[in-house]
Amino acid sequence: MQLKRVAEANLPTPWGDFLIVGFIEKNTGHNHIALIYGNIFNSSSVLARVHSECLTGDALFSLRCDCGFQLESALSYIAQEKNGVLLYHRQEGRNIGLINKIRAYKLQDKGADTVEANHKLGFAADERDFTVCADMFKLLGVQKVRLLTNNPKKVDILTKAGINIIERVPLIVGRNPKNAHYLDTKEKKMGHLLKFY
Question: For the chain, which terminus, N or C, has the lower number of CB atoms within 10 Å?
Answer without folding.
Answer: C
